[in-house]
Amino acid sequence: MTTLKLKGLSCHNCAKHVEQALARVPGVERVKVSYPRAVAEIAGNAPLQELIKAVESAGYGAEPLGV
Description:
This protein is an alpha+beta fold. It has one domain: Alpha-Beta Plaits, CATH 3.30.70. 33% of the residues lie in helices and 34% in strands. The chain has a four-stranded antiparallel beta sheet. The longest helix is centred in the N-terminal third of the chain and has 12 residues, at 12-23. The mean pLDDT is 96.
């Protein structure tokens, strides 16, 4: 499980957009994005940099939680 802190979310639609972008990354099995917490939880074996790149390409920021 990888957890990312998200930046720039302003609504539930933003969270859904990020969730869809992450779901398209090869190796992602399951994604859950929480708008109130601005956190994405990703199950699977996708590389961290690919996950961050997907969030950034959707127009938002991301960093590993706890870093």
